[in-house]
């Protein structure tokens, strides 16, 4: 019985080593800091993006989604928090980011800072975009 347990442990260790060796490793290639565009608009479902921004904090992970059917910009890239859509990648940066996403490049985005807020001030959102390369 003890020999079988040792064999199982050895097999599990070998599987773990194999999985680690086969997992792609990513190397940070570039970091871009930008502002989220369109933060003063309401979403299609009526949710106010300003309310969503008021709930966010630095370090929160965000998700990028392509919006090729956007009538204003075929390269539009939406930005979502766990609460909903907070805006877009700006128009100048969108073609680059959409190309990366289409090429399955790993692109991570986090909130770097929430700005503004308070009486008669709009919230803004600064983001950090990290672009990785497989090694």
Helix and strand composition category: alpha+beta
In order across it, which strands form the biggest sheet?
1-6-5-2-3-4
The helix fraction, in percent, is 25-40%
Low-confidence stretches: none
Give the averaged pLDDT, no decimals.
Answer: 91
Q: What sort of overall outline do the alpha carbons produce when their principal axes are compared?
A: elongated
- Give the class-level CATH name: Alpha Beta
The percentage of residues in β strands lies in: 35-45%
Radius of gyration: 21 Å
What is the chain-wise order of helices and strands? Answer: HEHEEEHEE
What is CATH's topology name?
Answer: Alpha-Beta Plaits
How far apart are the termini? 42 Å
Give the name of the CATH architecture: 2-Layer Sandwich
Describe it.
With 135 residues, the protein is an alpha+beta fold. The protein has one domain (27-134): Alpha-Beta Plaits. It contains three helices and six strands; from the N terminus they run αβαβββαββ. It has helices at residues 2-22, 49-54, 94-102, and strands at residues 26-35, 61-66, 77-81, 84-88, 107-116, 123-134.
Concise account of the structure shown:
This protein is of the alpha+beta class.
List the helices and strands and how they pair.
Elements: H1 2-22, E1 26-35, H2 49-54, E2 61-66, E3 77-81, E4 84-88, H3 94-102, E5 107-116, E6 123-134
């Amino acid at each position: 019985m003890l020999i079988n347990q040792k064999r199982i442990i050895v097999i599990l260790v070998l599987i773990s080593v194999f999985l680690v060796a086969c997992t792609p490793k990513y190397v940070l290639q570039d970091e871009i800091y930008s502002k989220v565009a369109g933060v003063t608009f309401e979403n299609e479902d009526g949710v106010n993006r300003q309310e969503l921004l008021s709930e966010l904090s630095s370090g929160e992970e965000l998700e990028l989604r392509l919006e090729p059917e956007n009538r204003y910009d075929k390269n539009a890239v939406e930005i979502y928090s766990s609460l909903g859509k907070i805006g877009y990648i700006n128009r100048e940066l969108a073609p680059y980011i959409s190309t990366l996403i289409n090429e399955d490049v790993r692109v991570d985005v986090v909130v770097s800072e929430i700005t503004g807020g308070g009486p008669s001030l709009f919230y803004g959102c600064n983001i950090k975009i990290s672009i990785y390369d497989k090694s």
